[in-house]
Amino acid sequence: MGDRQFLLTLRIILVTFTAGALLFALNSKSTMYEMVQNAYNVTLAGAFVPLVAGAYWKRANTQGAMASVVLGIGTWLAFSQLAPDTLVPANLIGLFMSVVGMVLGSLAPSIIANRGHSIEAALHQAQAHAAASSHHAHKHHP
Fold first, then answer.
1. Does residue 34 register a pLDDT over 80?
2. CB 34 within 8 A of CB 40
3. What is the distance between the alpha carbons of residues 2 and 88, in angstroms, rounded to a whole number?
4. What parts of the sequence cross the membrane (predicted)?
5. pLDDT of 119 higher than 80
């Protein structure tokens, strides 16, 4: 995917997500506080573990991230709807299951192909691009 297509895709996703969030907010009976709390719960149960594991655990992969998101958010939603008065809050149970999903999904035989690059590879590519740009600029401007 080229830069222009990637930028267009990001813009489409942003507009679609914003429209969905607006429709949800307009049709929700929740207070503003509850909506913000749920937004943080989704982030905690579904995004925190894949982000941290992707940055610091070399064995983390796409399959583990997908399992982490599905188990984390699925568990949080299930416990918040079916057992809202548990001793441990539903968002922390979702966080725990997100960790379980990341570990099991990453260590299991690969079914889902890895996509993207490691942070190290991305940094190396950015440094190489910067060095090439710097070399190119110095070559044309003595």
1. yes
2. no
3. 46
4. 7-26, 38-57, 64-82, 88-108
5. no
- Give me the residue spans of the domains in the chain: 1-30, 31-140
Instruction: Quote helix, strand, coil % in the chain, to nearest 5.
Output: 80, 0, 20
Cut 0.85: pTM above it: no
Report DSSP letters for 79-141, one per residue.
HHHH-TT-SS-HHHHHHHHHHHHHHHHHHSPPSSPP-S--HHHHHHHHHHHHHHHHHHHHHH-
Burial category of 50 from C-beta neighbours within 10 Å (exposed 0-12, middle 13-18, buried 19 and up): buried
The pair of structure tokens assigned to 135 is: 């070399």
Q: Could you report the per-residue pLDDT of 77-96, keeping only the tens digit for each?
A: 999 999 988 899 999 999 99
Buried b (16+ CB within 10 A) or exposed e, 94-120: bbbbbbbbbbebbeeeeeeeeeeeeee
Residue 100 dihedral angles phi and psi, to the nearest 5°: -60, -45
Which 3 state secondary structure label does DSSP give 26? helix
